[in-house]
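Researcher: I'd like a structural prediction for the single chain below. Treat it as a standalone chain; there are no partners to consider.
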Amino acid sequence: MQYLAFFGLTGIIAGLGVFYLLYPMTKRAASLEVNPQSFEQELLLTSQQRDSSYITLQELDQDFASGHLTASDYHELRASYKRQAVVALITLDKLEARQKQISLEIELAIVHQKIRLKSKTRAKAAGPTLATSYCSRCGSSVEAEASYCPKCGQKLAKLVIKQGS
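Model: Treating it as a single chain, here is the predicted structure.
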């Protein structure tokens, strides 16, 4: 009788532990549908989901080894938790790839800004020249030799300046 009460209590505690670990995952999915999280929060929550899945799988293995689960229950639960872990890993891979892409875009924007600042500094140092023209679409200044506007990509018309007649 005492063994039955012990295993019943152990089963309840194990069930509550699994619920405690899985509840944040279900809450996170619902909150993302209603109110999207920022990129950093998504990365953090997905990392926590991955870690939680790993812990749950370890606890599941321990419960099975100690005889608290039948083989069929163990295999069914293990497959389910493995799927959750795989989803978390795939999501993390996508988020990390997006993070790298964002970093590269930022670096590219910085390089473009440095180039613009250098060309503006050179243009100010040289003073006004006839070599500077303006884009007909966006109005930004472009070098006379340029074929396309560096800001909007508009193809530029070539101007021919006649020297004295």
